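Researcher: Quick one. two chains, 353 residues in total.
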Amino acid sequence: MSRLPPFQRFLDAHREDVWRYLVAAVGREAADDCFQETFIAAMRAYPRTRIENPRAWVLTIAHRKALDHHRARARRPVPVGAVPDAPAPPEAELLGDGVWERVGDLPPKQRAALLLRFAGDLSHREVAAALGCSEEAARRSAHEGLKRLREELAA
Amino acid sequence: MTEHLTPPTFDPADAAAAAARFSATAHPDVSYALIDSPVGTLVAATTDRGLACLSYSDHAGGIDAVLDHISAKISPRVLEAPARLDLVRRELDEYFERRRTAFDLDIDWSLVSPFGRRVLAATREIPFGEFSTYAHVAAEAGNAKASRAAGNALGSNPMPIVVPCHRVLHSGGKGIGNYTGGVHRKEALLRLEGVLLG
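Model:
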């Protein structure tokens, strides 16, 4: 079919992928706001012609909304007392969702590549398209991110 | 650690709730809802201009086909937003309870051709409890010889009940004619209005 499905069907098809990605990228609390922003932007841009890869398309939008969220948060002063919880033991973090908090502390390129690759379940090629870099660069960022995580967890 | 990270766990109900919040607060070009009625479930769709479609959910290829049609002909920015169809639902409820004999809803004619629009405009003038013929409606639409074309326009009426194509019958006792939702529904509506007895 050359035309797009009604937006409701697009939303139903991708809501879980976007939600899972955003839980990893911004945490559960901020996920809802970013989810709303993502689909508002997606619906505004929703064209009448086919999108080559709708899942990668909407995850790319979610990636940008997550960046916006982090930028807005970085501008805000950190309130006194907002000390992060003591880190859980490395083993538990590796197995649980805690590893995604550590991903959030990685350099931007590594963080973005790991989020899109493993929380968004995109291929390296799709990650590259989302980030506007080469496939090789996307692969390298993910590799370096994983390496750095391993080193931090071993420390 | 392998070259892999496990995706975060999440509750699918949270994603569904976020999506429902989006549908309820966003501003789509077309909002739709499923509406239960004594003649079956209806798919109702509205734009800012008014009601654009009221389809029997088991006809015209079903709900998905109706939404595909709307998506292609009006806009793909279509969301399920039942609250935006409250007025349509209320007027339909009143009609089926015989508390309403005419609909006050605004109509969006986007899915109707110019000739079809003239035919349906003439059809809207037929009062509750009365009936007309294909030939008469064709004449009202400006072409007395086009009763077959008028029949086709009525057959593709995108908003039955509200535009009462069930009130258009064959002339000369040749039966009540076809209906977009099946003849049994035409009979049910005509019984409700007291045109058919029993």
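The helical segments of chain A are 7-26, 28-45, 54-75, 90-95, 98-104, 108-119, 124-131, 135-154.
Researcher: Thanks, that's what I needed.
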